[in-house]
Design brief:
11 helices, 0% strand, mainly alpha, 70% helix, single chain
Length: 260
């Protein structure tokens, strides 16, 4: 009779996990060329291992649900599970009593398809249009927003990506803006332009984008090279965003983001 000792079982599981990591690195580079595909090898591994740990914390251990979780990270941001833009994600992930992990993964998949249809549009046309509007904004003079930013930013953001604003609803959009304003205060952002771009980045890349390993250039733009003045950081954010959009528009249009 074949006996598999505990140490051998541990080695087998580790080998299977390593093989899955390699498989996901290849898959996600195709699934999300603009974000994951643009990362260096060590950064890709960091994202995958982060996702494995977070999926496990929600009781997702089967290959399909874990792959879905990783795909959603690249699509919505690594912190999508706590993002006010996607309250449905956190609700589904945390509702362990509602059913086994495959059932929760199915619900998450269905809600994501609903979101993509409404927000991305056929052929991702809505998202590409938003990219174009944001890129134009990054290259032109910024007219300061009149009044309190908590009041003026939501309709301004809605003008950039009306489909996403409509899907989120006023409550989720307002929560995202409030979080963006809080982060801007922590970063000592003093200009409307920098604050606005921080909120736009959160809208595009997820509310945790400043520290997201998927988008390391954002954190660098806000903290690197001793630039502490808000005006200098805003310029750096604009340049980084414009460069990302230049590289992302074509591969984003060609990437189908098809869940398997």
């Amino acid at each position: 009779m074949l006996t598999i000792h505990k140490a051998q079982m541990h080695a087998l599981r580790a080998a299977l996990r390593d093989a899955f990591v390699e498989q996901m690195i290849v898959h996600l580079a195709r699934f999300s060329r603009p974000s994951f595909g643009a990362l260096e090898e060590d950064q890709r591994r960091k994202v995958v291992h982060l996702g494995l740990g977070r999926a496990d914390s929600y009781g997702l251990t089967f290959e399909g649900p874990v792959r879905l979780y990783l795909e959603l990270m690249t699509l919505l941001g690594s912190d999508f599970d706590t993002d006010p833009q996607y309250p449905w994600a956190g609700e589904i992930l945390n509702a362990r009593d509602s059913g086994p992990q495959m059932q929760r993964a199915t619900l998450l998949y269905q809600k994501t398809l609903e979101y993509r249809t409404a927000v991305f549009g056929p052929g991702d046309v809505h998202t590409l249009d938003a990219f174009g509007g944001i890129q134009a904004l990054a290259r032109q003079a910024f007219a300061p927003l009149a009044g309190d930013l908590e009041t003026t930013l939501p309709p301004w953001i809605a003008s950039i990506h009306p489909q996403k604003a409509a899907f989120l609803g006023s409550g989720a959009l307002a929560a995202l803006v409030r979080e963006g304003l809080d982060k801007a205060r922590v970063l000592a952002s003093s200009t409307d332009r920098e604050v606005a771009f921080i909120v736009v980045f959160m809208l595009m890349f997820g509310h945790g984008c400043i520290d997201d390993p998927l988008h390391p250039w954002i954190g660098r733009a806000l903290s690197n090279d001793g630039i502490t003045e808000s005006i200098g950081r805003a310029k750096r954010l604009e340049q980084g965003l414009s460069a990302w959009l230049d590289q992302a528009r074509v591969p984003f249009a060609e990437t189908k983001h098809t869940f398997r």
